[in-house]
């Protein structure tokens, strides 16, 4: 605390990201990174751009990347916003499109950065409880509100809302922006990007951190009709003219172009998830149906906190949330087969 | 405009960065980039990190970079904040340390992003006129205020405030944060970093875009006593946990380590500025004394706007501001000798 702080900064409750340990030899299944490396084409594009040109500012509009993303989703470049990771895109979204007189709505169990953004931008919010099976029910989001935001699949549950239910959410909220945070959509869901031309109130947010294996590069984007994108651009241009450096733009353009590699690694993660789920179930875990690159699981006879601590003692990191309703669950990233086998081995011993 | 925008976004006046043209063969002296490439050690460090590790998140604290910067300035890592370019660092500073009940003070002729940040965060401000010679006088900043911010050397004038005058500014404002925005300090000034241990109200902001030739990488930082830095960290962790990607961290660490290259290119820019100044003066221009990698100059017989347009027609870009007091000035980046010669050649014809 300092007398020089603004009242706002003193009142903030910052987000705590999953641990990024500096020690080696850990089985790191705590921050939903992709176990497969980025496409070789991405690494080649970055290396090709690592030269004298770095002395120059990047294109502040990142036009090449917007075009590449637009092509991938059959949209127009004016329907694409890009940022320094989807967290930055989310932050600008709270400021530009979710700050209204009425409270916004999001699930009570969800990405825990949302209330933090509300604190930063003075956005009022009302958490909407998931149902008993930890599912989102669009009917719970009817009625006047300042906006709606939810991850799809939801985090940390991994549960997917089918596209028809997303459509229902949009139809129920014609006067609010509905933000679908699709960080994990490529691992089992159908993107709401296809609904953008139809719904002026839809904003879809994605990231290259997960399904494109580029958490270390920091690129996220939003898709929506041009007036929503323009609102985001106004905030971006009041914050930082050049959020994406030259290497991030070059790597991201190459990532969007390599559809074959994307498809192969995506399917490998999905297959790994199914094996991990089977393995956990054979140890007696209850595993929520997941459409993400992680699973959310609990054991009827063991506390989540003690399992997480036991795994950690054996150098296996998973994520555990001290939060009502989900405190006995572990969120486990789908790693390589070897990593998942090691996890199951340690869990078997802990549960014995 | 859209009915989905927040009132805030509708009221913003976004910043307009200098043009980043996509055509080649331009003499680009409009955005104060360094004419010399980044250090070869920087490029090697980035290439070495361009591998499978990009699938993993970066260190959210960028600890290695904070340590490298702290060593360079004989400070502690807890006295260093890092961000995605100094524009992001400035944005967080307005939110964390300059948003108070009283208006903040900054020069009437200065970096034009400051009023934009005020709009974004609802910060009241009062511009303080430069003196007749376009200089900052610390005595004009006495009296109660919510904070003080100024670039040193100032942009776009290039004029330097000596360290003793910065100290006077700090002594005059013991109850306000004084932010010294040192984007250009390495080209001729003495950094206020040395005053950090002495003044709890001092925040120094720098960038790797100019004197480290890394505008394309996006890295900036702030130096201050730990409580000020902690305020910035709280905002950062409420906005984006991972503002710097792995390649930005690797490149910036290498840049801070290569002091010899930094010194050589810095001196080359300073020598180029002296030649450019002499050349402009020989054409009849009045050139303000500059401590930056640009000069601010006007011709008694020619309008700034028409000179900028004439240069542009000959594929030479400089920056011109349509703003009272400085509308007849051109802001000209110190380029390579060849670029400066081409500029002078075109100006000679235009002034003939």
From TrEMBL, chains A, B:
GO terms for biological process: L-histidine biosynthetic process. One of its GO terms (molecular function) is pyridoxal phosphate binding. Its cofactor is pyridoxal 5'-phosphate. The modification N6-(pyridoxal phosphate)lysine is found at residue 210. The gene is hisC. This is Histidinol-phosphate aminotransferase. SUPFAM superfamilies: PLP-dependent transferases. Residues 25-347 form the Aminotransferase class I/classII large domain. Coiled coil: none annotated. Keywords: Amino-acid biosynthesis, Aminotransferase, Histidine biosynthesis, Pyridoxal phosphate, Transferase. Signal peptide: none annotated. It is an enzyme of class 2 (transferase). Pathway: Amino-acid biosynthesis; L-histidine biosynthesis; L-histidine from 5-phospho-alpha-D-ribose 1-diphosphate: step 7/9. PROSITE patterns: AA_TRANSFER_CLASS_2. CDD domains: AAT_like (cd00609). Its EC number is 2.6.1.9. Pfam families: Aminotran_1_2 (PF00155). Homodimer. It comes from the Bacteria. Belongs to the class-II pyridoxal-phosphate-dependent aminotransferase family. Histidinol-phosphate aminotransferase subfamily. It catalyses: L-histidinol phosphate + 2-oxoglutarate = 3-(imidazol-4-yl)-2-oxopropyl phosphate + L-glutamate.
């Amino acid at each position: 605390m300092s007398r020089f702080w603004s009242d706002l900064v003193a009142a903030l409750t910052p987000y705590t990201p999953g641990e990024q340990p500096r020690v080696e030899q850990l089985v790191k299944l705590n921050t939903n990174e992709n176990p497969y490396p980025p496409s070789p084409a991405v690494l080649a594009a970055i290396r090709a751009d690592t030269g004298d040109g770095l002395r120059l500012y990047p294109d502040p509009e990142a036009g090449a990347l917007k075009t590449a993303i637009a092509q991938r989703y059959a949209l127009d470049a004016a329907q694409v916003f890009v940022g320094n990771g989807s967290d930055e895109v989310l932050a600008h979204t709270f400021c530009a499109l979710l700050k209204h007189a009425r409270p916004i709505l999001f699930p009570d169990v969800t990405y825990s950065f949302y209330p933090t953004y509300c604190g930063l931008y003075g956005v009022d919010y009302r958490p909407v409880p998931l149902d008993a099976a930890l599912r989102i029910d669009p009917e719970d989001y009817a009625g006047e509100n300042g906006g709606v935001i939810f991850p799809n699949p939801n985090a940390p549950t991994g549960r997917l809302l089918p596209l028809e239910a997303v459509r229902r959410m949009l139809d129920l909220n014609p006067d609010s922006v509905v933000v679908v945070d699709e960080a994990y959509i490529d691992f089992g869901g159908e993107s709401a990007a296809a609904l953008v031309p139809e719904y002026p109130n839809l904003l879809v947010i994605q990231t290259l951190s997960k399904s494109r294996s580029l958490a270390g590069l920091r690129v996220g984007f939003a898709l929506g009709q041009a007036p929503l994108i323009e609102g985001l651009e106004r905030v971006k241009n009041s914050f930082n003219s050049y959020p994406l450096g030259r290497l991030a733009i070059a790597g991201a353009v190459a990532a969007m172009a390599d559809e074959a590699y994307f498809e192969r690694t995506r399917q490998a993660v999905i297959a790994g998830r199914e094996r991990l789920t089977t393995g956990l179930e054979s140890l007696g875990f209850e595993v929520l149906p997941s459409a993400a690159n992680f699973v959310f699981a609990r054991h009827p006879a063991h506390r989540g906190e003690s399992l997480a601590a036991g795994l950690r003692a054996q150098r296996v990191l998973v994520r555990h949330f001290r939060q009502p309703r989900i405190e006995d669950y572990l969120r486990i990233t789908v790693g390589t087969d070897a990593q998942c086998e090691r996890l199951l081995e340690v869990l078997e011993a802990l549960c014995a």
